[in-house]
Design goal:
heterotrimer; A: alpha+beta; 2 domains; 5 helices; about 15% strand; globular; C: Aldehyde Oxidoreductase, domain 4; eight-stranded antiparallel β-barrel; 21 helices; about 25% helix
């Protein structure tokens, strides 16, 4: 059982920690770093609730080891809103469209939408909806999530250039 | 669902990986993208003593032209494959297959080499490797060898790779521009493993099929090369090809089974249909063009 | 009835943003796994790998020695508490339910040992080191196993957990037998997992001998506190239960169950805070599940398609340790509640098996709607009436009410017929039929499904724990409003909807109202979310309490301002006196006096601005709905694409349309899961076969269409005019979708009554087993397949008339006669042998007069050949065990039933009965 020194930047803040080799990134973010907005819904990569942004890409925090994040920049759902509390457009769209009920899957959905619309990217609705197929929501029937995705998209669903 | 203890190492070089694998004597597992391995670890279905992370080795990344084909580093992420213009040009069928692997979020981590080396029988990429005639370069302290993809798979997650071997590249041969690409996947939801999957490439020269690579996924314990159909197609004129007859031959090589998601009968029936339809539609499209 | 006037409602009826969303969107919710306490240890369970057997030996010594392990507990260690596991109704269940297995295990996943360690990783490591020897016994897995197998709970009389009704009612049988039309079918619903995205979890923290604090994922902290108090029988400890955010429940977390109780007991033994968070593997294998049931429904009609009589024979798998032994009497109660049904009888049974126990799942009685609505469509085809018309002829309308159903349910204001009318304003059925007919010519299969139902919501009073709800509201000295409610949200958004009601009634800004719930030490008892009740009971309580408070504000303000209370009004947080603009005061000014200067108040009035009201709504408030769905089936692959779905529902006064539609949509998505995707299944040894989300398939965004909503909004008799809406989508969704699929498949004469309708099953329905069994088929499209279908014999289902076609037969003429006395397919049978009843299944295939088939039983699988003559089947079968014999089968098929005899050599004749699967 090995232990490793890692340095990770989480939501702009440098963290230094010693972690066991087997510690899953999701557990590290929740327990060691205190970002409990990272929700573990299945721990085997299907439900998407634990999705975070690692070096610009939306990934499952349950499918990475903490030690693998050494040197990475990570954004969790806690790190999206502006310091004055202004919600990120992905958060605002979900709020406006009633895209959540119990809120457990929500952080993952937010992070996928945020990753794909970051740097002012405007992917098509089809692209966003395809990416959202990697998230399970048991409450909403996806109605508000889909409306939020369409609102964030650059082109309506079905009209993406081939 | 927490992984059992292991020693984690992340070597910087291929040689070091090979040395560590050799020392471990079968007790080590290689971690590439981890999108299949991590669930197995969490479920404690995989409990290695040593986990060898190859994600930090630059030499295992990226794609390049080599040996009259394309050499792809095993740690190339699936979303990198999809976005790579060189690969789009040389291996459009591989890109199509890769778009069907998992979800956007898993493709950001998942690698082409990890998928091919693992050998999930219902996954897209092992079948793509078989259909396109790829081979894997396997290195150990004992040396380097190349294994043809069609000789790689023995059963679910069982491959010809020795425990001390690391996949250091996947070689895809070029397919001429005049190649008909076939891809069909029947899966219950986007990102699920296939109930039935078909991938194939047919090169046309002077109106006849000069080269054929066809493989099934989700149709048996391994990706399955449709040898009888390939043999029947070679040399055939594409005008008036009997798509249904070829589909029948293609199905004859499969060995599907009943599981939680579909019956073997279902897989055979639907496989026969999607094969015939995919082939017929491709021929019709070519005719129209 | 006291529905708010539309003109006065400023917040009721509005899609206001939810108060919950700010914290949930930014990762600042508080779910149970987010709770961290100093010194907290973590629990992992060692669970049984076998479905049934005796525990021979438990060796924890190696695990106990592992560094980081604090304790390892077994049932023996917990025995210092006498823990009475209770049903949802807080009654004793009649069987012994130990939190940890004592000497026997009863299902795969049965918790046997608890490991308590520094963290969850270490706890799981040590769990792997606990050695347990079992003496395995053959398990009782299915309902059929339960009827004939050994006792699941040794010492009990039988495996019947609960039985109600009459097996054979001669009068009813006579009615059924003499009716012009008798329609019979058996509907099978698979077992499903509630699968809230947040699994179960608990943190226990005992402080001294006096205080016990429990954080738990639940549906009502008040109910949990009451449950714990009663189950542990500890009058001298104060119990506080907290649950701020809960990630869905859907019936699963309605009461603490074995693992939670074991963890709470362990926390009291060890005097350390403990946490257990169920992982998904545990959730899919060891958390109670739902819905594994089957029903045979017989319905008699007169010549005009009017209902005459019906009988339902119902079985429900309870598993080993249900949340209460259950034969689901509500299925029978509400089977025909919305229809004019002169005579109805039932026989309803629940069975113990060696599987994980039964829990509620959103609309636990939903099988009535599935069975009734799918059979009504089949009846419509059989009788030759339009399925919409058959509902119109039989639904109870406004003109029929008030009335009392044959099972004693009083109806005053149900509106399913009106919902159907509104639905059909949105849906152009003739246009769809034309599209359907044109599509069929191209080999595309479209289908339209319609279903209607009523749902009993906010049931109160009849069941002990189902009390009213309490609202405590106060206007703070700041002028802001604080409400403490007994309601509880697991996604329901009651902080939002209750604030809307309160703001509306008081006349204050929505933003000024804060709603608190989720703490058993605040407010008062309420059962929380259970039975679509919070809008009605909680909304009514909020309404009443706000009215009382408003009265007090008026009296205080009138006294201070020297005005008549009737001239005082509160609007947008400002107190006005009619005709005296100079008297306008902020609510804060009035509140400051009310709290700080009691001398200035009227002499008979208490200081402060606080009130509470416990509202008990009428015993039942009915919600009605009609839904329609259009599907297209890919006949090559058996995949179903949902093209359109319209929900027309009447949930009374709508507090927040976005929340209401969210509840409906969530339920409909779960319905889609049940019909197409989700399935908990077991192998013959009782091992679960779908233990991850790769195999237990929940609907994804791509599986769920955009739902269209129509609201009828007939105010109910309850305070505020609200009706419940939490469960409805999950009840009406399945028959709507199944009917659409059956309509699409009507050219093939298929009955779709065995959920889930997987692509494999749909292809079998389209083509029949025989096609798929051919050694070398061909790439047959659906047309070719239909031609190949065995042409069997006499017709009991004259044709597949899709919805709407009877009215306009020329619009889409029947493509081909449906086959006949449908013999082909899978049947289940019970043979009454001298050694006891033997359950088996048979697969029959006919080709002209030739019968081929396979019998599947414990003795193995046997193929046979025989003959078909009309509805009679005959075949011989040789068996070697227990002695060498030739069994001569002589069987008559009647609809979906079969009966007959088997001549067993010198053993004589044995009775055979069976039904189609």
């Amino acid at each position: 059982m090995s232990e490793h020194r890692i340095e990770v930047t989480i939501n702009g803040q440098a963290h230094r920690a010693t972690v066991e080799g087997r510690l899953v990134l999701g557990d590290f973010l929740r327990i060691d770093a205190g970002y409990t907005g990272v929700h573990l819904g299945c721990e085997h990569g299907v439900c998407g609730a634990c999705t975070v942004i690692v070096d610009g890409c939306a990934v499952r925090a349950c499918l990475m080891l903490a030690v693998q994040a050494d040197g990475c920049e990570i954004t969790t759902v806690e790190g999206l809103a502006a310091p004055d509390g202004t919600l990120h457009p992905a958060q605002q769209a979900l709020r406006d469209e009633h895209g959540l009920q119990c809120g457990f899957c929500t952080p993952g959905v937010v992070m996928t939408l945020a990753a794909l619309t970051g740097d002012d990217k405007r992917p098509s609705a089809d692209t966003l909806l395809a990416a959202l197929s990697g998230h399970i929501c048991r409450c909403t029937g996806y109605q508000g999530i889909r409306r939020a995705a369409r609102r964030l998209a650059g082109a309506p669903a079905g009209e993406e250039p081939a | 669902m927490k992984p059992a203890p292991f020693d984690y190492i992340a070597p910087e070089t291929i040689d070091e990986v090979c040395e560590r694998l050799a020392e471990a004597g079968g007790g080590a597992t290689v971690l590439a993208g981890g999108q299949t391995l991590m669930p197995l670890l969490a479920l404690r279905m995989s409990q290695p003593f040593i986990l060898v992370d190859i994600n930090r080795i630059a030499a295992l990344k990226g794609a390049a032209r080599a040996d009259g084909g394309t050499r792809i580093g095993p740690v190339m992420r699936q979303n990198e494959v999809i976005a790579d213009p060189t690969l789009a040009n040389a291996l459009p069928l591989l890109l199509t297959a890769t778009r069907h692997v998992g979800h956007h979020q898993t493709r950001n981590r998942g690698t082409i080499g990890g998928s091919i080396a693992l050998g999930e029988p219902a996954a897209e990429l092992p079948a793509a490797a078989v259909a396109l005639g790829a081979s894997v370069e396997a290195r150990s302290t004992r040396g380097v060898r190349r294994i043809a993809a069609e000789a790689l798979y023995f059963g679910p997650y069982a491959t010809a790779l020795e425990p001390d071997e690391l996949v250091t590249a996947i070689h895809f041969p070029d397919w001429p521009p005049d190649t008909i690409n076939l891809f069909r996947e029947v899966a219950r939801r986007p990102g699920d493993f296939a109930l039935v999957g078909l991938i194939g490439a047919l090169t046309v020269e002077q109106g006849r099929i000069a080269r054929a690579g066809l493989a099934w996924f989700g149709m048996g314990p391994t990706p399955i090369k449709a040898r009888q159909a390939e043999a029947a197609l070679l040399g055939q004129s594409i005008a008036g090809l009997d798509a249904r007859g070829i589909a029948e031959l293609a199905i004859a090589d499969t060995a599907p089974f009943d599981d939680h998601h579909a019956t073997a009968d279902y897989r055979r029936t639907v496989g026969r249909r999607i094969f015939a339809r995919a082939l017929q539609e491709a021929l019709d499209a070519r005719q129209a063009a | 009835m006291t529905a708010p006037q539309i003109g006065a409602a400023r917040f009721i009826g509005q899609r206001v943003p939810r108060k919950e969303d700010g914290r949930l969107l930014t990762g600042r919710g508080t779910f149970v796994d987010d709770i961290v306490l100093p010194g907290m240890l973590h629990v992992a369970f060692v669970r049984s790998p076998i479905a049934r057997g005796r525990i021979a030996l438990i060796d924890t010594s190696v695990a106990r020695d592992m560094p980081g392990v604090h304790a390892i507990l077994t049932a023996k260690d917990l025995s210092r508490f006498k823990i009475d596991m209770l049903t949802f109704y807080l009654t004793l269940p009649g069987i012994e339910i130990p939190p940890l297995a004592t000497d026997r295990v009863a299902y795969v996943g049965d918790p046997v040992v608890m490991v308590i360690a520094q963290d969850r990783y270490l706890a799981e490591d040590a769990a792997g080191l606990v050695a347990i020897d079992y003496e395995e016994e053959d398990p009782v897995v299915t309902i059929d196993d339960a009827k004939t197998g050994p006792l699941v709970h040794p010492g009990s009389e039988s495996n019947a957990a609960a039985v109600l009704g009459v097996e054979e009612d001669e009068d009813l049988e006579a009615l059924l037998a003499s009716a012009p039309h008798l329609v019979t079918g058996t509907i099978t619903h698979q077992r499903v997992s509630q699968s809230p995205m947040e699994t179960r979890g608990v943190v226990v923290d005992q402080q001294g001998d006096e205080e016990l604090t429990v954080y738990i994922a639940c549906q009502s902290p008040h109910l949990v506190a009451r449950y714990l108090s009663q189950a542990f029988g500890m009058p001298n400890i104060s119990i506080r239960v907290l649950a701020k955010d809960v990630g869905g429940s859907f019936g699963l977390k309605v009461q603490p169950w074995r693992e939670e109780m074991a963890v709470i007991a362990a926390g009291m033994i060890l005097r350390r805070p403990l946490k257990w968070t169920e992982d998904r593997l545990e959730n899919l294998t060891a958390a109670n599940q739902a819905r594994e049931q089957e029903i045979t429904l017989r319905i008699a009609f007169d010549a005009d398609g009017k209902l005459l009589a019906s009988h339902a024979d119902y079985d429900l798998n309870n598993g080993a340790y249900p949340h209460g032994p259950d034969c689901n009497i509500a299925v029978q109660m509400f089977m025909w509640a919305a229809y004019k049904m002169p005579a109805f009888g039932f026989y309803t049974k629940g069975w113990y098996t060696n599987t994980v126990g039964l829990a509620a799942y959103r609309g636990p009685w939903a099988m009535e709607s599935l069975a009734r609505e799918t059979m009504l469509d089949i009846a419509a085809r059989q009788i030759g009436v339009d399925p919409i018309e058959i509902r119109r002829r039989n639904l109870i309308t406004k003109a029929d009410q008030p009335c009392t159903t044959s099972l004693g349910i009083q109806l005053e204001d149900i509106t399913p017929a009106e919902c159907l009318d509104k639905l059909l304003e949105t849906l152009d059925v003739p246009a769809f039929r034309a599209e359907q007919a044109a599509a069929r010519k191209q080999g595309r299969y479209l289908g339209l499904g319609i279903a209607t139902y009523i749902e009993p919501t906010a049931s109160t009073g009849s069941i002990g724990v189902m009390s009213g709800e309490l609202a405590q509201i106060r206007i703070e000295p700041t002028g802001k409003v604080t409400a403490t409610l007994s309601t509880h949200s697991q996604g329901h958004g009651t902080q939002t909807t209750m604030a809307q009601v309160i703001a509306d009634q008081l006349g204050v800004p929505y933003e000024d109202v804060s709603v608190f719930e989720g703490d058993s030490s605040r407010g008062g008892f309420g059962p929380g979310a259970a039975g679509s009740r919070q809008g009605v009971a909680g909304g009514g309580a909020s309404m009443k309490a706000a009215k009382l408070l408003l009265d007090k504000v008026k009296r205080v303000a009138a006294h201070l301002l020297n005005a008549n209370p009737d001239d005082v009004r509160l609007e947008n947080g400002v107190v006005y006196v009619a005709g005296a603009e100079e008297m306008t005061r902020s609510l804060r000014e009035i509140a400051e006096v009310a709290y700080g200067e009691p001398d200035r108040l009227p002499p008979d009035i208490q200081a402060g601005l606080e009130t509470q009201y416990r509202y008990t709504p009428p015993p039942v408030t009915f919600t009605s709905a009609a839904n329609a769905c259009i599907v297209e089936i890919d006949a090559e692959t058996g995949f179903v694409a949902i093209k359109r779905w319209i929900s027309s529902e009447d949930c009374g006064v709508v507090i927040n349309p976005a929340v209401v539609e969210g509840q409906i949509a969530g339920g409909l998505a779960q319905a889609i899961g049940s019909v197409l995707l989700e399935e908990v299944s077991f192998d013959a040894r009782g091992n679960p076969t779908a233990v991850t989300y790769k195999d237990y398939m929940l609907p994804a965004i791509s599986d769920v269409p955009d739902f269209e909503h129509v609201h009828a909004s007939t105010p109910s008799k309850s305070e505020g005019g609200f009706r419940g809406v939490g469960e409805g989508g999950c009840i009406i969704g399945p028959p709507t979708l199944v009917n659409a699929i059956a309509d699409a498949l009507s050219p093939f004469g298929a009955r779709c009554l065995d959920l889930p309708l997987t692509p494999s099953k749909i292809l079998e329905l389209i083509e029949g087993r025989t096609i798929l069994r051919k050694a070398s088929g061909h790439g047959a499209g659906p047309q070719a397949a239909a031609v190949d279908r065995p042409t069997a014999v006499t017709a009991s289902e004259p044709d597949a008339t899709p919805i709407g076609e009877a009215a306009e037969p020329q619009a889409a003429p029947p493509l081909e006669p449906a086959p006949a006395t449908a013999v082909d397919g899978l049947w289940k049978m019970v043979l009454s042998t001298p050694m006891g009843p033997q359950a088996m299944k048979g697969r029959f295939a006919t080709n002209g007069q030739i019968l081929t088939g396979t019998l599947y039983s414990d003795m193995g699988d046997q193929d046979f050949e025989g003959i078909v003559a009309g509805a009679t089947l005959k075949w011989d079968l040789k068996v070697e065990k227990p002695v060498s014999l030739t069994l001569k089968y002589d069987v008559q098929i009647e609809g979906d039933k079969l009966s007959g005899k088997v001549k067993m050599g010198f053993f004589g004749n044995a009775k055979l009965t069976g039904e189609r699967l």
